[in-house]
Amino acid sequence: MDSVALPLIALIVCVAVFGHEARFSRLDKRLARLERKVDLLLGHLDVAVEDPGTDAVAALARDGKAIEAIKEYRRVTGAGLKEAKDAVDRLQGR
């Protein structure tokens, strides 16, 4: 019985994990779309919103320390690499 139960349990765990990963992927994409829409609305209304901790990021960017600024932006905001790079590029006027 144990020789059948263990593979069955492993299969159930794999299905559950893959199901959750797919769901998280869809939620991440949905969240990214919502964030883009909010950013567009804020831009259209000419409303500037500062992210917390961006003073340190801006200082690093001004000093030409782009990689450190990107790392700090990601640490403070939880953003992905591309979003952080784009934010630092904006701070550097690129």
Q: Could you give a quick summary of the protein structure above?
A:
With 94 residues, the protein is mostly helical. Helices cover 80% and strands 0% of the residues. The longest helix is centred in the N-terminal third of the chain and has 43 residues, at 2-44.
Secondary-structure blueprint:
Elements: H1 2-44, H2 54-62, H3 66-77, H4 81-91
Helix pairs in contact: 2-3, 3-4
Distance between the termini: 65 Å
Mean pLDDT: 84
Q: How is the biggest beta sheet arranged?
A: none
Roughly how many Å is the radius of gyration? 20 Å
Overall geometry comes to elongated
Secondary-structure element order, N to C: HHHH
Using DSSP, what is the number of strands?
0
Low-confidence stretches: none
- Tally of DSSP helical segments: 4
3D architecture notes:
It is a single chain. Helices cover 80% and strands 0% of the residues. It is mostly helical.
